[in-house]
Amino acid sequence: MILDAKIPAGPLAEKWSTHKFNLKLVNPANKRKYDIIVVGTGLAGGAAAASLAELGYNVKAYCFQDSPRRAHSIAAQGGINAAKNYRNDGDSVYRLFYDTIKGGDYRAREGNVYRLAEVSVNIIDQCVAQGVPFAREYGGLLDNRSFGGAQVSRTFYARGQTGQQLLLGAYSALNRQINAGKVKMYTRTEMLDVVIVDGKAQGIVTRNLETGKIETHTGHAVLLCTGGYGNVFYLSTNAMGCNVTAAWRAHKRGAFFGNPCYTQIHPTCIPVTGDHQSKLTLMSESLRNDGRVWAPKTVELAQKLRKGELKVTDLKEEDRDYFLERKYPSFGNLVPRDVASRNGKEMVDEGRGVGSTGVAVFLDFADAIKRLGEDAVRAKYGNLFDMYYQITNEDPYKQPMRIYPAVHYTMGGLWVDYNLMTNVDGLYALGEANFSDHGANRLGASALMQGLADGYFVIPYTVGDYLAKIGPKPVDAKHPAFEQTKKDVEERIKKLLALKGNKTVDEYHRELGHIMWEYCGMARNEEGLKKAKGLIQNLRADFWKNAIVLGENEELNQSLEKAGRVADFLELGELMVDDALMRKESCGGHFRIESQTPEGEALRDDEHFAFVSAWEYKGDNQPEELHKEELVFENVHLTQRSYK
Amino acid sequence: MSANGMNLTLKVWRQKNAQTAGKFVTYKAEGISPDMSFLEMLDVVNESLVHKGEDPIYFDHDCREGICGMCSLYINGHPHGPKRAITTCQLHMRSFHDGQTITIEPWRAAPFPVIKDLAVDRSAFDRIQQAGGYVSVNTGGVPDANEIAIPKVIADEAFNSATCIGCGACVAACKNASAMLFVSAKVSQLGMLPQGQPERYRRVQSMVAQMDEEGFGSCTNTGACEAECPKEISLTNISRMNNDYFSAKLFRQEELHGQSHGE
User: Fold this and answer.
1) I want to staple A50 with a disulfide (CB 3.0 to 4.6 A). Which of A173, A220, A473, B97 is the partner?
2) How does DSSP classify residue A7?
3) How many other C-beta atoms lie within 10 A of the C-beta of residue A469?
4) Which of B47, B51, B62 shows the shortest C-beta gap to A240?
5) Per residue in B223-252, pLDDT tens?
6) Which residues does A421 contact at the CB level (< 8 Å), separation at least 6?
7) Binning pLDDT at 50, 70 and 90, where does residue B263 land?
8) What is the pLDDT of residues B56-70, one digit of tens each?
9) How far apart are CA A402 and CA A236, in angstroms?
10) CATH class of residue range B123-256
11) Torsion sign (Cα): A380, A382, A384, A389
């Protein structure tokens, strides 16, 4: 089959305007005859649910947390990009588009990315109107900073808590619609399957996490805004509850999975301390604006530091290797995340890592404190420094932070067309849950932008087109597909609850995480990936024999919740490995050891791999079928990325 | 502390559901590293319970980086434990000593009924926000962001109020289970900003009315809420809210400002 991305024809800058005009509209009086299901209430889901309700649709929104305000978008620290050019420093919609395409290593669609850059300016206006307290200058206007790999200052921020403030803005808009009766909110409710009727998504099956009650819900369209799947690695910067289940269930019902192997490893996270570790904490990339990344110049010095024979503050300037500044003089510490991460790992692999485990490098603020003063540094990064201190018991005002890369974001996700619709009619994916805008690597401060762009400014237009075409006839809740899907969900829960083996679900999850990190992490090769595939298959088979799942369905049962999610990760993990094996080039976050330049940088193979991989599920334990969406570049010239 | 870490005694509140009476159950936590977070220590205990076939302790948690507001443990008589200005997930075991007994309870407040063990239902907070914690603007059609100039001090102060994570520690700390700090943080944030002015007096009245309806108690200016707040939301917010609330009641500010309720 040929995947049709439905990118509108015409010049790049006019595609979205033309498309909006060509989309069908739903008559205002008819909007209330449509029900729309929105799963997830982060930036994408919260913004979509509020905006669609404002238009007059009936929205049903779902989250597994106890409140929509807790969605993991809240944890985003650094900022949000927008091509406002408030700084007069050469920014434009085209430049943001170009930087995003290049940053994504030319593996994203031109049309989507241009639209993202175009609506970025509206997002800032919207958030400010809601009362989001962005950082300001003394003149009263908005402040900006430069962020991860950008040479212009286009990032808007709210101290180190930008995601929180944006999410609370979307949450407030959502609350207004709940109060108006236009959104029905279901909290502590997990989506466990999607109901497809005659090829169209018309509902979902959920489990009430408090009571265990399994229910079906109908809608004319289903929007999955359920985030990314970084927790397949067990340790990541994601929240503990982040999972792939909604997206994976949709995949098993026919939605293609796009670019599953594209994982972003964030360079600046607090290193692992031991086996008890449950998650990793990000230190915002904004820290690289003022912090300098370095490692000891020699292995001997590193060893002395690790043994405590030397203190980090004893190390003289000439004993320090500011390796990013040395290797990439024009971007320095601000190289994109994939480049910074790989270089950090290289230092550790060479034996120049620091900290008691030796798996870390330094991020040093001594120069910034000397230049700006401690107060100015505190005003910018105070909450991050405090968080670092809480976790490590080390004071970053007095000694450098120790950092190491960790899994942070997944660029892959459900395949969607320009309208954000998957290949299943009426089933949409927004935000991190889709694959569409970041290519093989996401630039800093672009995730918040994409989530809100999809929710506030794309889906309100595109879903209307579909709804107008299918008409407002009520969904038939009695269609056998609803009963059948519910039965499938109940069967699976029964199967999980019957597992009375000897290994906890967390133990399986941790083991899967080790395999993924080791063989499908920062650098991958064919041998390792093949090994990983076998290991995952064995682990999955073992899980379905020997896992322990306690309790019953009709209660708040964390054992059962986790088991369902880990079972899905055990399937997704293998698909990620398959995708990584197939893609023999290096690009962005996907570094294939076999494909590098003489200087050790990622080497793309545009001739053979300038496509999106979209995988089709073919049944349990069957190989998935690969479909390719060729990427067409009419505006940018593909070059090897260089940040030297 | 032994070479293999700390040994602790935990007295944990266990309660099957809202309908069943709860009780304290004692557990041993052994070989605990000081680098573990408090929740990681509970993970270790839970893993051993699961291996024994016993129901693990249920507690709410999600981001584990102090921002989502989900974790909510009452530890040795303090919401979020003994340290100031952090959430439970940011509390590390180095704040405890070998041999210590640690008592862990859920938030205790009538408007926050226990769901199971250490998790409570905080949906009352959502309903208060739904009553008016927003600026009534639709998506699209808003002015350019820089058309609204806001003095930096106002923006910074509004930001301080906006950092509330909605965890409920203020209610748990208060002898009256008052939600004034939580409600006033949102009222202050929007009340200070120009965007919030058109609905300023209407908002405070709706949110306070909902707060009362949920059954939260009165504020007596004791300040336990401020002392225990992981985000250090200040009592000044409560003063601002009282000011707006009385202005609205006494001087019918809504009309003075020429605004209609649409009622």
Assistant:
1) A173
2) P
3) 10
4) B62
5) 999 999 999 999 999 999 999 999 998 876
6) A427, A428, A462, A466
7) very low
8) 999 999 999 999 999
9) 17
10) mainly alpha
11) positive
SS3 at position B25: strand
CATH code, A307: 3.90.700.10
pLDDT < 70: residue spans in chain A: 149
A452 is a domain residue: no
State the Rg of chain B over Cα: 21
Q: Searching chain A, which residue's CA lies closest to the CA of residue B18? A: A210
Domain-wise residue ranges, chain B: 6-116, 123-256
Is residue A28 less than 8 Å (CB to CB) from chain B? Answer: no
Q: What is the pLDDT of residue B2?
A: 54
Residue A431 resides in a domain: no
Domain boundary among A354, A388, A408: A408
Number of separate domains in chain A: 2
A408 interfaces chain B, CB cutoff of 8 Å? no
Going through A443-505 in order, the beta strands assigned E by DSSP cover 503-504
Question: Positive or negative CA dihedral for A504, A505, A508, A514?
Answer: negative
Q: Clarify whether residues A378 and A511 are in a common domain.
A: no
Report the alpha-carbon distance of residue B67 to residue A290 in Å, rounded. 24
| Beta-carbon separation of B126 and A128 below 8 A | no
pLDDT tens digits, residue range B193-216? Answer: 999 999 999 999 999 999 999 999
Q: Does B130 touch chain A (CB under 8 A)?
A: yes
| CATH among 3.30.465.10, 2.30.130.110, 3.10.20.30, 3.40.50.150 for B6-116 | 3.10.20.30
Which strands make up the sheet holding A189-197, listed edge to edge? A189-197, A200-208, A214-218
Residue A454 DSSP code: I
Taking 50 as the threshold, does the pLDDT of residue B136 lie above it?
yes
Q: Residue B253: what pLDDT?
A: 58
Q: How far is CA A433 from the centre of its chain?
A: 7
Point out the catalytic residue in the list A337, A442, A565, A604.
A337
Dihedral sign of CA atoms B49, B52, B53, B54 in order: negative
DSSP H or E segment with residue A225: none
Q: Chain B residues with CB inside 8 Å of A189's CB?
A: none
Q: Helix B180-192 and helix B123-130: axis angle, to 10°?
A: 30
Structure tokens of B78?
């303090």
| pLDDT, tens only, B249-259 | 887 655 555 44
Nearest Cα neighbor of A50 from A167, A182, A223 is A182
Q: Please, what is the end-to-end C-alpha distance for chain A in angstroms?
A: 41
Contact at CB, A276 and B43, closer than 8 angstroms: yes
* pTM for the predicted model, two decimal places: 0.96
Range of the domain at A339: 267-408
- The answer, for A459 touching chain B at a CB cutoff of 8 Å, is no
pLDDT value at B260 more than 80: no
